Amino acid sequence: MRMAENRSFSIVLEPQEDGGFTVLVPALPEVVTEGDTESEALANAEEAIRAVLSYRHDNGIAIPSDAKPQVRRVTVAA
């Protein structure tokens, strides 16, 4: 039996135009989820992260360290 290890991951919580939120996890690109509310989106993200970590562990795939996303603004003529 493996002992649970706590890990923290930065997420990107993006409000959607029609309501709800999309969640991305830069360190785990396979995690993309959503929710109608912020709390639902965060709960879905936790569940998805656990599933991906379990899959990676079971298949011998490295679990990366957290990514530190940075947000910048770029202005272009359109």
Whole-angstrom Rg: 15 Å
- Per the CATH scheme, the topology name is Double Stranded RNA Binding Domain
Number of domains: 1
Helices and strands, in N-to-C order? EEEH
Largest sheet: 3 strands, antiparallel
Strand content: 15-25%
Uncertain residue segments: none
How many strands?
3
Question: What is the 3D form?
Answer: globular
Average pLDDT, rounded to a whole number, is 93
Summing up helix and strand content along with how strands pair, one would put the structural category as alpha+beta
Terminal Cα separation, in Å? 57 Å
CATH C-level: Alpha Beta
Widest sheet: strand ordering:
1-2-3
Fraction of helical residues: 25-40%
Q: What is the CATH architecture annotation?
A: 2-Layer Sandwich
**Count of separate DSSP helical elements:** 1
Keyword list:
1 helix, 3 strands, Double Stranded RNA Binding Domain, alpha+beta, 78 residues
Task: Produce a short descriptive summary.
With 78 residues, the chain is of the alpha+beta class.
What is the fold's blueprint, element by element?
Layout: E1 12-15, E2 21-24, E3 32-35, H1 38-58
